[in-house]
TrEMBL record:
It is an enzyme of class 2 (transferase). Catalyzes the 2'-O-methylation of the ribose of cytidine 1402 (C1402) in 16S rRNA. Belongs to the methyltransferase superfamily. RsmI family. Its EC number is 2.1.1.198. The gene is rsmI. This is Ribosomal RNA small subunit methyltransferase I.
Length: 276
């Protein structure tokens, strides 16, 4: 019997009306649906009257489950893969299953639809011809600041996911690493009842989040403009180099050396060490 198809199905990130007719048809016709959270996906299926069996597939069991699911595909059963919301594999499980299915010669077919990443980018009004998706920043402050220091000179628009309990800290670290005036957009609860998309500098967005508790609730996508040319690029590179030097040298010495290496103004670097 020929292998069937693994359908990678995008599901709504908020508004249930965004589940396409094709996605509904596929979810009805497959033998089973591999879901990150069967309870959450079960609610979605119930809303549309879909009774297809669910199989749990998450980060903890995916390595073990992938082999079993590929065996079902090779036996002729078509399956669907969904995540809690949006397009699977974008900061969600599913990579191991897709890779195993392709390695086994199984057809893997996308059913496109909602994606918080693309939704935020489409309304941000920032350059979108070239962008880099960084997913979730590290939870630990030191690792997060190190990651941001490495990205400070990135010319492409950057897109991050962030949770409600870390959004204020992440904005503070972005403001420190990228500079007060870097343009950005903070998209919150996209396609949901309390959807907002705030634009401004990183400093302005940080203050908005600090001052308004409602802006610290929900799920966030942060879109940050890439570094500009000349002075902005030198400053971003100066901050990156300074962050590295400041781990071993006094702040004033680190700032002086970083300024000499990159051409960034020393005064803008002094006092910008990790943790401040």
């Amino acid at each position: 019997m020929p292998a069937a198809t693994l359908h990678v199905v995008a599901t709504p990130i908020g508004n249930l009306g965004d589940l396409s007719p094709r996605a509904q048809q596929v979810l009805r016709e497959v033998a089973a649906i591999c879901a990150e959270d069967t309870r959450r996906s079960g609610q979605l299926l119930a809303h549309f009257g879909i009774s297809t069996p669910l199989v749990a597939l998450h980060e903890h069991n995916e390595p073990q489950m992938a082999e079993r699911l590929v065996a079902r595909l090779l036996a002729g059963e078509s399956l669907a893969l969904v995540s809690d919301a949006g397009t699977p594999l974008v900061s969600d499980p599913g990579f191991r299953l897709v890779r195993a299915a392709r390695a086994a010669g199984v057809k893997v077919s996308p059913v496109p639809g909602p994606s918080a990443l693309i939704a935020a980018l489409s309304v941000a009004g920032l350059p979108s011809d070239r962008f880099a998706f960084e997913g979730f920043l590290p939870a630990k402050a030191s690792a997060r600041r190190e990651r941001l220091a490495a990205l400070a000179g990135e010319p492409r628009t950057l897109v991050f996911y962030e949770s409600s309990h870390r959004i204020e800290e992440s904005l503070a670290d972005l403001r420190q690493a990228f500079g007060e005036e870097r343009p950005a957009v903070l998209a919150r609860e996209l396609t949901k009842l309390f959807e907002t998309a705030l634009d401004g500098t990183l400093a302005e967005l940080h203050r908005r989040v600090q001052d308004d508790p409602d802006q610290r609730k929900g799920e966030f996508v942060l879109v940050v403009q890439g570094v500009g040319e000349d002075a902005d690029a030198r400053l971003a590179e100066g901050r990156r180099v300074h962050a590295i030097l400041a781990r071993q040298l006094p702040p004033s010495t680190a700032a002086k050396l970083a300024a000499e290496i990159t051409g960034a103004p020393r005064k803008a670097l002094y006092g910008a060490g990790p943790g401040e």
